[in-house]
Structure prediction request, 1332 residues.
Amino acid sequence: MSSQPLAPATPGAGAPSPLASGISQPHESAAAQVAGAATYVDDIPEVRGTLHAAPILSSVAHGRLLGVDARAARAMPGVVDLVLATDIPGDPMLAAFAGDEPVFARETVQHVGQVVGLVLARTVVQARRAARKVQLTIESLPAVLTVQDALKAQSYVLPPVFVRRGDANAALAGAPHRLDGTLEVGGQEHFYLEGQIAYVLPQEQNQWVVYSSTQHPGEVQHWVAHALGLDNHAVRVECRRMGGGFGGKETQAGHLAVWAAIAANKLRCPVKLRLDRDDDFMVTGKRHPFGYTYSAGFDGTGRLTALKLVMAVNCGFSADLSGPVADRAIFHTDNAYYLQHVDIASYRCKTHTQSHTAFRGFGGPQGVILIETLMGDIARQLRLDPLDVRLRNLYSDEAIPGTGEKRDTTHYGMPVEDNILAPLLSQLERTAQYRRGQEAVLAWNAANPIIKRGLAITPVKFGISFTATLFNQAGALVHVYTDGSVQVNHGGTEMGQGLNTKVAQIVADELGVPFGRVLCTASDTSKIPNASATAASAGTDLNGRAAQFAARHVRDNLAAFVCGLDGCGAGAIRFEGGRVISPATTRSFDDVVKMAYANRIQLWSDGFYRTPKIHYDKTTLTGRPFYYFAYGAACTEVAIDTLTGESRVLKVDILHDVGRSINPAIDIGQIEGGFVQGMGWLTTEQLVWNDQGLLTTHAPSTYKIPTAGDVPQHFKVDLWPEPNREDNVFGSKAVGEPPFMLAISVYEAIRDAIASVGDGRPVRLEAPATAENVLRALAG
Amino acid sequence: MNTKPLRFLRRGEIVTLPAVDPSRTLLEVLREDLHSCGTKEGCGEGDCGACTVVVAEADGDQLKYSAINSCIRLAHSIDGMALWTVEDIAPTLATSCAVLYRPMPEATTLLPVPPCAGRLGAAGISPEGAVPCLGRPGAAAIAPTSGNGVAALHPAQQAMVDCHGSQCGFCTPGFVMSLFGLYQNTVCKGDAISREGALAALSGNLCRCTGYRPILDAAQAMQALPLVRTNEADVLSNLKRIAHISRGLEADFSYMSPRTLAELLAQRARHPDAQLVAGCTDVGLWVTKMHRQFSQVLDLTQVAELRRVEDYPHHIAIGAAVTLTDAFAALVADRPHLAEFAHRFAGLPVRNSGTLGGNVANGSPIGDSMPLLIALGASVVLMRQSGKAMAHRELALEDLYTGYRQNVMARDEVLAWIKVPKAAPPETSRVYKISKRFEDDISAVCLAINLHIINGCVHKASVGAGGVAATPVRARQTEAALIGQPWTQATIDHAMAALRQEFAPISDMRASGAYRRTVLGNLLQRFWLEGQGTVLTDLRQLAPTGEGEVAR
Prediction:
């Protein structure tokens, strides 16, 4: 059942063999992780005098904060002090993009779970007990809890954005067929296994060390300095690894670090803040829930001719990353399909809930799912096969009559130059035996009144690069020590995705040394400054390239040195297998390093990379926001129980494009993990807020991510065998986010099964497809 | 109040902790007091499994291993047991594990000797070479490695590395320990690990990174690695030493763990305010989530009489200290169709700690065992001290409850036994659970049906329901609609209507009241269809289309 790692691939030009890359090196920390010897922030030995913090949370969705009574809390054993907004030495607003989020709630509270302050105590249990004893006096104000209410009230965190091409109204009027509808798609809790945590240690002369479980140490540094009223250089942030991130530790980790730093500043001692899982649910933002209203026009062959779409994005109480998330949803409204006449309105709704944030896919999934449901509904309305309708709408070189244009340019004006959708889908159709499966499903459904099957193939085309062009830069340091061992440090962070492993593989190959000679060290703002978040799937593209360049500089120094010794040209020197080979002789890498050191040759270097070709206009959302696209497709078979609405995934076949894989096992791990996480989003993971704005699913007892038993035995992943057509590190492609959207095939297969008992009308199924939602959809 | 020293065996040594507060959890003691940070806290409520450790108790001349959640397990409850965390199982930890791991002299080498074997030998401890009859021939090709200067690994650990089973690594210690528990209970006893066995062992562990496939692969791959066996004789003799040291200390400490029923009832009578616990898988959350503190705890899980399942001609009696794992095994032995329901009851680490008695006495309206037990006609035996003797009374399970988590038990009473009638020939029984997730979830609705159908007529009916009222309940109106009626679709239609009428379930985060009501009726329809046997109604019986054809 499991996928076979690919044969070793050939890395970039000039790199030597035998190779560290292209093979399935185990994760660089695997042996430590399985032995309980990998250190996470809460495992760092605590410095003497460390205090523990627990947050004081608002119990009201929207209200005026009139008073904080901490007398009972202060009387509790072990309690040392409280910190509130009045204790912030710097700006009381967080240094977030929009500047709209207070560090601690001050005059108003804006969601249940908003942090008003911290209780500090000798132990974490004492702090948590006491935090619950703090009495808040809050005068309730009307709360906006749904996007419908937000739209009515024009309650936005950011202004609406409109993207148009062609004339959607005219095309809709002239379309032979049309579909109008609405769709609700729920949010998703990250459920990183390691909850949010920060440990802040004051140093001499008002300098600070922060251990943070963060995808963005640079931003934590900036936020902490801003809140303390210091220059960035006074704050050093370190993160060796996270116990999962998924976007949830891109901005959200900064809040904790700032809160802990304010406490540490007030009390002049180390402070650790580790959120209890329930508090983590209540405090931190999640994947944005979306509401859609759409009208689509199409012809008798299923080809889409017009799309009018309103997206209402539930952003929560502040902007956070909602702007770029909502933008990416717009960019991915097309998914794999050409949209000739399109009109998209995106409303960034402000509600009195947690401030929703980055989550794997970053709005992409919410863009893709809408058009995929449309493809399914169009097929059913025309009684065509949904795959045929999808193929009919793919980007292609087909000319559009009378326009001089081709069906190859996105609605934001970017030509799809690396399109492999048609051959990729065709291969999956064949290997997953889709047509035969469809026949078998039809036959089954005709014979079985209660259990119905459904089958669907959905593709994904995902744009790679930060849409904020400035973030597409990275730095790295490669140090070669006099014994020939190598240390690499880069601006990315390790959250389990194997970034450090891939970077070490790249550096090993660039220097021609064995993988085991290269060590990747903790992310540290004092090593690589101004690093971007490890996000947008771009960790390896950016940091791997920067590390490659750094290693190349060192190699060039060594090559020049050997040239001098042997009297040859630098191009004649090869680095491979731990040896340095010149036309004259072969030396060990370690010997060359020793000799070079003795001759005062620089054995370390920096590397810097910025992604080429990208640019776009932020106001019109047009241009080339992405360096390239990553592609994939999944074929999923499900069954549903029409008596209860329960569903089960029976079989999954995936064909995914990672370019030339640097580490097939890690890439397959990302594909499988992304798929299962996406499956959770669309099936069992339901966030429920009650009519008071209280999130009632705030722990794993009530919020259900997939278990091992939810994964089908037939779960097959194949990699598309073609290098990136753009010049990317070792010919690879980004893999973190794109596979997440492959799980939309689960949702479409469930809708296919529901449709088998219907009359061809569109299936109205809200996501996630819980048993209750499926049963409701079956009722029509 | 006096605190009894907490003693357990770890890494071959007796750990003695003199002053552990009765409300502290095992995870807190591990991480905060012993600075063993390999074990992680993911949720603090026994739902994610990151904190999984393995404990063992003497079971005759053998050890009985259980993977448990250390986050909701009160530390004192492992007094007298052996404990392994993820840091304790590597076979080269000479200083820590020498007592536990020794070469078995009769071992013969059938598999390639791993590269690390030389080092193991030098340390005087080595894994066995032989893994007889485990039937995955190709898997032997997985060669253990030991990179990054980390000590050689236990097969449960090595297989996770080889199969790429860890990504962020935070859930990994828990998975490794669930695998270790599985390994001890299968591989070390010469049994093979199937995919189903792996799924059962991992049902209480969540991973957010991998998609589980590599972890399931690891679960099966570990049996092909060179065998590492615990030296059980050493552990058993050490456990005896602890028992000997602790003898005579069963007085009125802040954490009381009586060994006999008489002692339990006496302490219950003397300390009616002590928090009674029987596995603590719910009470543990009162500590970690509601921050309750107990000045005194009375733990009945060590009471010898109550740790038994007793077999009688017409019923079995399950002692209140019998874990859910063992209690369900007894129920499934009598009614094999309950196996799936048993698997779906929480996750394995919770079933290994929690007791059926605790689940019943706790009386949660969404506790899953009670609808089933009500339908099966179970009764409970309540016991108390009466003078120098023991008094008892028996009542039908449904009569135990008086309101939301309220029951008829007196302050000095203890729920001691659950008596479950054995399946008799005319019985047709089924239990259905509807939840968002198949495994390790709490019911939105649970319905248990037990009918005696004789000559096409419903002779007897008992129906238990959960998730529909403030307590687990018996659906008497529905039963009335069935009893004496011909066993037909018309009767079912009538009973479905009655069942939907009978309760007014609430709407909450698990489901709406309307859905609960609709599905209650539909489950009765499912029961009818299953009985007819003409229509498939079980999603779990389905294979993908074309499965098998592809292979050809």
Observations:
- Chain B touches chain A through 102 residues (CB under 8 Å).
- DSSP finds 18 helices and 19 strands in chain B.
- Residues 513-532 of chain B form the longest helix (20 residues).
